[in-house]
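Ops channel
N.P.: pipeline sanity check, posting one input/output pair.
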């Protein structure tokens, strides 16, 4: 069943915004399985955007419309679902919860003005993943308003009270008063298994009951038992709201015993939420069969429209000219200079490239020409990365709703829209007026650190591979393409295994390119461990001109980073002057091919000492061959060492994982060189480790740190590999050469 099959007539009309104050941009954040997509469906049903909520299991949700999402039954990309409530357009940005797709999450954070953290009541005390907590800290660092919604209330193991306490511990560690529930659950009769389903909400501020047991939302007064529950929790909530809104006069009145009126409390609540200092906890559940609203969705929509900030409240955007000259910050003004940003790029088999754009200033209109400015994609393997300035004509503006694209007349500052066929615009690029080009500051993306070496499956695939990879990398800023000059491999760097699988599937299904993964090679090198000498003799006679060249060389090791040095010490013309460069050429060619295991030779001095030539049969080719033979003989008589690249590793983890991380690094031949405090509760571990040991570290760190660790790596140097490991590689190289 497709996403469009359950859409009502309202879905055919895109919600329109005529002023920034009537827009709310909200991103849903939470780990995989928390219920974000189901919550989007519930909100769409309550607002009338659909007439029946779809299910993830059926592939019938609005936000998960990609065929790959249907097959995997999980979100893999950012999706926009605009709805309308109380005259306010709400742009709901649904993000994947799986760590491999954090680039989609960051795009959602860039486009949004507030975040809704979705957690499951069916989880235990460890239900909040380390990755979710890290995103919370990122939002806190920039002051983004946040609220929490607890889902899966219908589950047998659901415990709203416990999860509220977990949220308070995780998100309110610095200030417990900043995280408080706005509602308590109203439980219905217990089932035979003892589970009492949540059938309504007890409003702490309003002191009202919102009963959903009948399938409709019914508001009533609380009974005495319900009122007692409300009264106890209400006092803590009010104290938290007043403290976070910094309304000192109201605090004095409240502590003095005054019964503060509801409007004043709601105003203070909305002020504290919009300032990003108070984070209310709400609850939500899908609608039961035949119901027009899901439990808690009306209350959640009221918070979004009343408590979350408008785009006008977002800090001014810093811009420069494309060449870096400073320009005044731009504010959210529909009449101001055009400044918009591409937050996501995707491909549609019928429309072509589709760009999701957030307009920060000015108004974007169809058929106008805009200037595209970018930060370049050279670092991610995009060949035209430096040529990222162009004028492009904007085609039709649309508002997405699942697979549908609904036409928009314009897109004002603060709103989001899709633009088709911007052929030069990539994710992260800025759109501005062609006569006044501007560039927004780049936003941070995680560095892809899991390599995937690939080869074209056939000649036909090889012809299409370059274009397919270029499109893939242009759409996803968390992928990087590398043509390794040392190993001669084509490497696609990704964030994790699921990210790799998605890349291969999209290459096959979207771009018609079949590739084969191959083992990723680390750039090993060889060097001499001690002085050695070699004699190269290339003498052949087969009628007519023969081949005659003899040379004697000495090879000695040099300090790391020296490369290959060639010295001529021939005396008496034993090797004629015109053939000395030939010997050097042969030596360097053999050094590039390797000696012991087929890896390039480095950091040696090769000295030509003596040789012999023939007046007729000596030639450039003969002395090249003799030089190569001499180097091979020198290697046979000396210990050739394998050099492996060593990386400087920086691992950022919560303090409780420092011990396991250090033990894991030691097991990988790593050397911990220090630790640094990196903010409250986090430590940075610095180490040096062979690159051959961390090929899959992006996956393995996630396991060791329970998803809460980050790392970066930089090349440090090459150093000798332990003999036992080097011997295994030599054996493998010999077997490979025998097979070929």
């Amino acid at each position: 069943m497709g996403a469009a099959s359950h859409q009502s007539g309202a879905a055919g009309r895109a919600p329109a915004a005529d002023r920034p104050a009537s827009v709310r941009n909200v991103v849903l954040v939470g780990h995989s399985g928390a219920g974000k997509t189901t919550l989007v469906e519930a909100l769409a049903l309550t607002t009338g955007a659909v007439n029946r909520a779809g299910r993830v299991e059926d592939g019938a949700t609005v936000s998960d419309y990609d065929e790959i999402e249907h097959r995997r039954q999980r979100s893999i990309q950012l999706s926009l679902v605009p709805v309308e409530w109380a005259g306010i357009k709400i742009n709901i940005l649904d993000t994947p919860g799986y760590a491999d797709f954090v680039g989609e999450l960051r795009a959602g954070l860039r486009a949004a003005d507030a975040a809704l953290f979705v957690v499951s009541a069916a989880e235990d005390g460890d239900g909040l993943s380390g990755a979710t907590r890290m995103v919370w800290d990122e939002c806190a660092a920039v002051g983004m308003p946040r609220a929490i919604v607890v889902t899966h209330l219908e589950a047998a193991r659901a415990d709203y009270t416990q999860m509220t306490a977990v949220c308070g511990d995780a998100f309110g560690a610095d200030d417990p008063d900043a995280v408080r529930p706005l509602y308590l659950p109203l439980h219905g009769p217990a089932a035979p298994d003892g589970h009492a389903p949540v059938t309504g909400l007890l409003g702490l501020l309003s002191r009202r009951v919102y009963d959903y047991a009948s399938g409709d939302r019914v508001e009533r007064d609380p009974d005495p038992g319900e009122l007692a529950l409300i009264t106890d929790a209400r006092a803590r909530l009010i104290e938290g709201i007043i403290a976070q809104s910094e309304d000192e006069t109201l605090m004095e009145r409240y502590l003095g015993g005054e019964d503060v009126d509801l409007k004043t409390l709601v105003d203070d609540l909305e002020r504290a939420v919009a300032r990003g200092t108070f984070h209310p906890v709400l609850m939500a559940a899908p609608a039961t069969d035949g119901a027009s609203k899901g439990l808690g969705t009306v209350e959640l929509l009221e918070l979004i429209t009343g408590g979350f900030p408008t785009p006008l409240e977002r800090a001014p955007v810093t811009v420069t000219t494309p060449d870096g000259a400073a320009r005044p910050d731009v504010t959210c003004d529909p009449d101001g200079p055009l400044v918009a940003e591409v937050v996501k790029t995707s491909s549609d088999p019928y429309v072509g490239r589709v760009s999701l754009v957030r307009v920060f200033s000015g108004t974007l209109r169809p058929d106008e020409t805009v200037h595209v400015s970018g930060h370049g994609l050279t670092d991610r393997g995009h060949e035209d990365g430096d040529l990222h300035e162009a004028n492009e004509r904007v085609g039709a503006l649309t508002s997405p709703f699942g697979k549908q694209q609904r036409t928009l007349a314009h897109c004002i500052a603060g709103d989001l829209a899709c633009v088709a066929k911007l052929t030069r615009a990539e994710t992260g690029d800025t759109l501005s007026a062609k006569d006044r080009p501007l560039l927004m500051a780049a936003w941070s993306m995680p560095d892809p650190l899991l390599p995937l070496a690939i080869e074209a499956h056939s000649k036909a695939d090889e012809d299409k591979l370059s274009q397919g990879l270029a499109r893939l990398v242009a759409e996803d800023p968390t992928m990087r393409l590398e043509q390794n000059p040392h190993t001669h491999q084509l490497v696609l760097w990704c964030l994790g295994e699921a990210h790799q699988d998605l890349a291969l599937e999209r290459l096959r299904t979207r771009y018609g390119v079949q590739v084969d993964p191959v083992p990723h090679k680390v750039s090993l090198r060889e060097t001499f461990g001690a002085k050695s000498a070699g004699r190269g003799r290339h003498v052949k006679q087969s009628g007519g001109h023969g081949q005659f060249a003899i040379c004697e060389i000495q090879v000695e090791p040099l300090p790391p980073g020296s490369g290959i040095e060639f010295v001529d010490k021939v005396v008496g013309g034993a090797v004629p002057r015109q053939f000395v460069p030939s010997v050097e050429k042969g030596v360097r060619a053999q050094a590039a091919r390797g000696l012991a295991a087929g890896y390039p030779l480095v950091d040696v001095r090769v000295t030509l000492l003596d040789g012999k030539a023939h007046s007729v049969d000596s030639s450039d080719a003969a002395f090249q061959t003799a030089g190569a033979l001499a180097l091979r003989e020198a290697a046979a008589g000396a210990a050739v060492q394998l050099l492996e690249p060593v990386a400087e590793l920086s691992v950022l983890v919560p303090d409780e994982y420092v011990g396991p991380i250090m033990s894991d690094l030691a097991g990988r031949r790593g050397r911990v060189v220090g630790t640094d405090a990196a903010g409250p509760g986090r430590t940075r571990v610095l180490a040096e480790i062979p690159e051959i040991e961390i090929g899959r570290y992006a996956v393995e760190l996630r396991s060791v740190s329970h998803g809460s660790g980050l790392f970066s790596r930089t090349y440090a140097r090459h150093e000798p590999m332990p003999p036992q490991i080097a011997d295994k590689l030599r054996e493998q190289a010999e077997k490979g050469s025998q097979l070929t």
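N.P.: looks fine end to end. Residues 1-11, 377-387 have pLDDT under 50 and may be disordered.
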